[in-house]
Amino acid sequence: MDGSHIGWGNVSIFFDCCQLDPIYFQKQKHFMSRFIKIRQMMDCANRIDIGYNVKHSTEPETVIKEDCVQTSFDFFGDMEEKLIAFGKEDCQLGMIGMFNRRLAAVDRNVETFEPDHKFIIVSDFSSYINGGSEEVDKFAKSCEKAGCKIIFVGLKDFYSEVKRECPLKGEWCDVLSVEEGIANIQFYHIINKATRGTPYALELNDQHKINIVDHVVLVKPKEIMSFKKVLKEIGDEESTTTYKRKFAKIDDEGNEIPKENIINAFKFGVNIIPINHFDEIYHGTNSEAKSFQFIQFAKSKDIHLSFLVGESHMIMPKENDKPSFKRMLALNMAMIESDVVMITRKVYSKASAAKMVVMFPRINETTNMPYFVNFNLPFSQDVRSLVFPNINDWCDGPSTNEEDVMNEVVDRMTLGREDKRFLPKQTNDPNLQMKYETIVDKFTGVGRDVQEIRDIIKPIYLYKEFGEENKRKLNEALKARFPITTPQEEKLMNELNQITFVNQRLADVERIKMEIFGKVDQILAVKEEAHINDVAKNEIKTEGSL
Q1: Per-residue DSSP letter, 284
Q2: pTM higher than 0.85 for the full model?
Q3: Are 229 and 213 contacting, i.e. CB atoms less than 8 angstroms apart?
Q4: Helix, strand, coil proportions of the chain in percent (round to 5)?
């Protein structure tokens, strides 16, 4: 399929990886987030090759099975007709250089490809690192001579032998050499998107400022290129049309209300409280200019890992600004020597709240370039002055009964109680916890000791221990404590015994677990009903004797 209709032109895709099957991909979380983008490119490709380099797999004993190629077909679904895989003989032998031989075959005919033809290599660089650099470098030079391009897509974490610092160029790297390709995508698992540099001034005090460029780095997949953006790039005039969104208040008759007649207000129940002038000015904004100010230094050991959750930034001196470069280099050297980090206050724009940022100093050993790695701390400064209504005039406080109910709810839902009802090993699912409580309560309803019954049913809630053996123990315990006395109970117990874990997939474990819970619940309901009936009969007998 020719991809020129969406701007890609002709594309050839090569998979250069140790394995290519769903189980392997599921382990490589970085790749799964990119799978949709690769599928989009595959829709534009007119050739797809798969190369296996089994001998250099991360697991030395790994052997490609005969059905591995078919598994790859299943994984890519409707792309099966496009896949061109190597024969089973090669796969069984696990020979080195299969990808390189395929690449060499294409290299001999690369001049026949149209200019700007794109070769996308989805790679873990196993073949390159383990002696295949000559063929790949030769292919890259042939592509450069023919006007074709190579796009490298990193498949997983890269080997330590080739790690080195590099400038950020985003996810897809149009490169003409393997070295540049490795340099630009080796840190993809940490950094996979960089915005354009945003100029700032890091204000240390009134006299000292460092002009910097802030690169926002997101640890999430880059957005898929939209058709509108692609069309705009190739000059479609219609794609440049912009639409201005208009928001208006409409009255009951469908007429637009003039802006000057609109009064903003909070709604609290049925009460409407107008927003005062001060709140209206500052509502949704701190009305503060963009700034980046130093607060203080802190020891690195005092900044816990839990604080470093969220998007990160890289701060570098502004290009060609020698004074800023010298100041940052001196500052970073002093901070690294003292083992401290910098705490700063950042305001991105007038429409955003102030953030507190921790800055970690770094210096590139090769280029001597100073930079900071930044993380936003979980802090937000709200400068609005909101006036809340007084509810004491129209609403009484909660009753004693309501307070008791809420206290019971808090006690029941609090983890880490002395009786350890909600164990750490239990699956953290509120629905299962409620089912656990229900079973315990129903056992209690038929006059059994709560803790003793918990010990019986607890194993079926332990994820790692849950299986056929625990189900058998549960059945034996039920039979020992509650002998079967009616046909209905016998039927339910037989249905419970028919639920099995043999040859079940992991994905079905939760479903089977819930089936067992349901059957146990039904058995206990029958027992509880019988117990209630027995109690009622005894009361009638007692009343009759009186």
Answers
A1: T
A2: no
A3: no
A4: 45, 20, 35
